[in-house]
Design goal:
The complex is a heterodimer of chains A (226) and B (862).
Chain A: E1 2-13, E2 20-31, E3 35-40, H1 46-53, E4 61-66, E5 69-70, H2 76-86, E6 87-90, H3 102-112, H4 119-129, H5 144-157, E7 162-166, H6 174-190, E8 194-199, H7 202-205, E9 210-215, E10 218-221
Parallel strand pairs in A: 3-8, 3-9, 6-7, 7-8
Antiparallel strand pairs in A: 1-2, 1-4, 4-5, 9-10
Helix pairs in contact in A: 3-5, 4-5, 5-6
Chain B: H1 11-23, H2 26-60, E1 73-76, H3 78-86, E2 90-98, E3 113-119, H4 121-126, E4 130-134, E5 142-146, H5 147-153, E6 162-171, E7 174-189, E8 199-204, H6 208-212, E9 221-227, H7 239-250, E10 255-256, H8 263-295, H9 297-305, H10 310-351, H11 364-392, H12 395-400, H13 407-430, H14 434-441, E11 446-450, H15 451-454, H16 466-473, E12 478-486, H17 495-501, E13 511-513, H18 518-532, E14 554-556, E15 558-561, H19 566-570, E16 573-578, H20 582-586, E17 590-593, H21 599-603, E18 617-624, E19 629-643, E20 657-660, H22 661-667, E21 675-682, H23 695-708, E22 713-717, H24 718-761, H25 763-771, H26 776-810, H27 820-849, H28 854-859
Parallel strand pairs in B: 3-8, 5-7, 15-20, 17-19
Antiparallel strand pairs in B: 1-9, 1-10, 2-3, 2-9, 4-7, 5-8, 6-7, 11-21, 11-22, 12-15, 12-21, 13-14, 16-19, 17-20, 18-19
Helix pairs in contact in B: 1-10, 2-8, 2-10, 2-11, 2-24, 3-7, 8-11, 8-13, 8-24, 10-11, 13-24, 13-26, 13-27, 14-24, 16-23, 24-26, 26-27
Classes of the chains: A alpha/beta (226), B alpha+beta (862).
Chain lengths: 226, 862
Amino acid sequence: MEILKAKNLKKYYGSGENVVKAVDGISFSVEKGSFTAIVGTSGSGKTTLLNLIGGLDYADSGEVIIDGHSILEMKEEELTIFRRRNIGFVFQNYNLISVQNVYKNIILPIRLDGNKPDKEYIGHICSVLGIEGKMDRYPNQLSGGQQQRVAIARAVAAKPAVLLADEPTGNLDSRTSAEVMGLLKMTAKEFHQTIIMITHNEAIAQLADRVIHLEDGRIVGGEIEV
Amino acid sequence: MRRIMFQNSNVKLEKELAVEDYKAHPVRNRIAVLAVALTTILLVVVFFVGLGMVKTVTLAMGAAPGPGADGNVILGDEEVLERVRALPQVEWAAWARRCSTTYLHNREFNGLDVRLFAADEVHYEKNMISLMKGKYPENADEILLSDTLSERLGLEQETGIVYPLKVVVQGEDGETEKEILMTVCGYYNNPLRNVKDVYEEIYTGADFIGTYNPHIARGFDSIYVKLNNLDFFRFGYDKDEKLLEVMELAGGNGGRYKSSDMTAWVIIPVFLIACCIMFCGYFFIYNVFDISVVNDIRFYGELKTIGMTSGQLRRMLSWQKNRIAFFGIVIGGLAGYGVGRLAGKKLVDTFADGIAAYYQPAGFVETFIISAAFAWVTVFISTMKPFLRACNISPVEAARYRGKRKKGIFSIVSFALSGILFLAVYTLSMGYRVEEMMERYHETDFRIYHRASLWGQDEAYQPVSRNLVQKLEGLDFTENFRIYYLARTKPDYYEEYLSATGSYSYMPSTAEITRDGELARDMEAYNKKLEEDGVDFNSSMYYDGFAENGRGNLRVKVLGIVPEYLPAEEKYHMVLEGTLDAEEFAKGGYMIYQRSGQGQAAAAGEGMEYQVHAGDEITVTFYDDAADRYVEKELTVMAIIAKDDMFGTGNISDAHIILDDAAFRSIYSDYENLAARISFDVSEKTENGETILNGEQYETVRNIMEEDGNLQLSLDSKYRTGIEFAETKKTITVFGIFLAAVVGLIGISNMVNTVTTDVMARRLEYASMQSIGMTKKQMEKDIFLKYAHYIFIAMGLAAAAGAALTYMLAATPSFTGFSIPAFLQALIMFAVFSILLCAWMARLLTGTMNRKSIVERLREVV
């Protein structure tokens, strides 16, 4: 079952001779529960693509449908709420809230929604990610790997339809990177998550179920016909 | 191994780095300059107005003529004048010659002391007799009037009018009144505006004296002396010795000077206010630099890592601080001076009604220098701690530095200060009740008092006429008509003054009692205590104590009062012993004793115990001057009282012995001539029972007094007082709003700066939260709560401290008590404003941050 479909996405910057075609007519779809890696060199448009499919940015043209909802037609607030409930993000530099402890960081999206967290579920996530003993700590008291685990926990805590990871191992050493990748795969399996990961590292990308190659804003390999 | 010290020779690099670092902080620089400028504006305004007030008050205090000369006068003739002018310690000397032996006797000048002078050009110029219309008098039959006198007489500053003056000339057989027709040749701007209701000067040509008053005593004209060697820091206390020095060198028949001891009372508050402003400014400037240093602490750590010393770092920061201080002080100095020049005179005029004519603005240079010095000190103190932190932190600490969340405290305190000031200003001005002030100063709606019964005069005592009393009593709008009598004995002038000046100086009304009896013993014991304390009560009638006269009797003030008036007087006095029982008093045989004019404190001091007490039956022997007889009275002391009224409202406060009207009449055979006070109320009322006071009533009473022609009477009215205090209320409001506005701006700017910086420092976090689903509304709410957290604490502080401060100020005589409704209004306004500020800033910051997309913000390197 398709959980995400992108149709002819375009995102250009500048105009005339100086136009930069960050995403130039990309179309692909992702199956529910799958782990997809989008690979490309620096400037290939992978982060821009992630931002478009994650609703962080608006495409100049095209469509993105997540779980049956066309997100690019949504107004800003609607999109934000949709993102909060349906898309989880894991960033390269973790983007944890420094003034909140680990537990509060994890349940932040749930609280933003005005809901009460399912403590049992949160506890399970933390246990799976190996951070159950760090609930009272603050981000600056954790290592990079630990912070990324917290970020993953936050991303899945709201049980989103899709989890988007932007270079999740970019700031980590190789060993920790391998750990985090393993956790991402386990999370996908454990919580039936669909994961789309951006990376420039081919080796990391091979851990995914499917790899889509990007170059100059276009898919050059690994796409599925829409 | 020998250690070789290398000298730092990279001053140029320090400056280069300073310039680059300075350029990298445009927002901080602007805010810091704003902070310094605001502080400087306030300082300049305060010093400008303050120093101007010092000059103004110095001139205006004592209400002495010769404003340009600070009231310094030497009595002499033209020979003395020439010698005075030749002295190096005299900047200039002006000459004003007496043309009338005493004040002019025109009826329309009733209530006024109007003098006629022939003055030289120096006097006109230096003592601010500046021409408004016409010309200065040149001939004996020309006169120059003030604009205030013109207004009083309804002359509309018309020149060419022929006006009769009743001049007192010195004849061979004594003083006589002479009516002389004079032509009004011009009008001048009255520099003695503050006393226009009691004193005026008219000028005529120098040959008036030769023509009309050739036998007037010579050598007693006023030579106004401007000294150039007074010590500023002695605040005028050295005036008499410097004047005496001039007098001894030049000769002369005495001198006068205006007391300047109020100067300190202006300077001290000015410096206190300046310190408060520095305090406000300190919070703001400290906060700006503290935030800046914290934000850049890693940069400073990196600089130290690559070899910059603490001293170099400090110099780099100081260069920026000095540049900011320079711009802020210059901008604030110029702006503040502009405000001061525009508003200074108005502030002086409204704060101290009538002395604006003396207004002398402070000089730009002195004001700017003092203000700049205070502002620079504020900047220096404010930046000490942040710079110390930046200079002393190690590179490792800097890399880990997270800052301490203390900066909010300064914003809170700064905002609270603004709130306190606003609450105080609003409550004091809105809660200021003009009616209450009117009641404070007036027991009745009108009061006519005989000046000569209270103060010395230049001419013989002129009793209140029966005709005046009847006319006033007969007015259709009067009720509660009362007369108070004060005994007077002769001789009633100072012999010493006559021999010294050639003129009479008449004493205020006093009676006398013999030295036997219990009462006299109490008075003499009091005298003894005063002598031990160094009070020379024999030298002046205005000192506490009971002087002895030529007959060997004690001078006392004896007042006669109709018993039914007694209850009205009770609220102005403290009853130390006994009771004030009007019914009992009316039965006769009683007296009330008030020993001291200084109130209870002096009366109850150590060694001041009373020798007589309430209930004692005593014998007092009064001297009736008119009949040259002694009258012995057996009296019971009904009560011992002391004055408890600082506003001069009571009518028996200056009497030592208070008798019922019948007893007084039985002692003093010239009773009818001894009326000292007449008071009455207005009978016209509104439907609600409120008294109707208006200018028409005032003018009616004034016209009657004018027709009566007794120039020794003065008129007080609740109506006029009401007008004055209404102006005062306006003043407090205007000035208070100005002060609150500027201090408020400091507080608001400080709060906005702190929270904005805090929020902007968290922009990555907000972007993160937005990426995971925080809406703009939620973001705005989060920022609002952040502001609200600070502001509500500040509001709490402001409410508590503001209430306390306002309560204390409202309890002083200048105000009318703490008004709870006004305070609550102010608090509500403050709360509403604060909430609106929070909401507005939250909206603004949310919009500002969201100008960049989430993605752009997430990509920013913090």
